[in-house]
Amino acid sequence: MMMMVMMMHSTLLLLPILAAGNPIEPRACTTVSPTFVRSVDILTPAYIPVADGTTAVYKDSHAPDPKDRYYGHIEDTVVEFSGIPSNAQDCEFQLFFEKGFHDIIAYYEPVKIDVWNVDQSAPSNSSTISWNNAPKPVGLFGVLEDLELPRGVNLRGYPAYDHDVLRNVNSSNCKETMTFRVSISSSLEKGGVQFRQRDQKVGPVGGWRMVYNCS
């Protein structure tokens, strides 16, 4: 079944971009969560893709080798926002982790992520997506440089963010459906990070989001 995360329309005050340094004035915006988050792996079925709603991006430093089926491992994630209203303006794609969020694993540091525009929308059924039929990159939309990772500890002892972290990917004109492909940056020899999309129902909030109609 396709992971359909209910669109969360809410007006909120955007927090300062703590990870980027200089604070900004709070803005009132409409915020929506993705309706599709699914990873695709070049080595499937050797690697089982993670569950719907989890971003997983990975690049192995080894060249593909028929003697080792795990060499050459590359994993990308397709992220889609659908149902954006026709009156939406200035869509800004963001990555946000609320204080206390801990459902994130980094395999290597630094974490640098490329976000790509793609040639088509995600399939209606997430179980049918694969490396071969997934939306293909057609142009770089934005880059997340040196993603900040959690250094604090939550009540369960897992590393958790001790402050809110907001990273802007880029902004563009809004469309009813906006689809992206996320990968480890081509400038890195190897890299990997994985995190689960979490909304206010299961908080702390974390993952991708789109904001628009800011004032």
UniProtKB/TrEMBL annotation:
<protein>
    <submittedName>
        <fullName>Uncharacterized protein</fullName>
    </submittedName>
</protein>
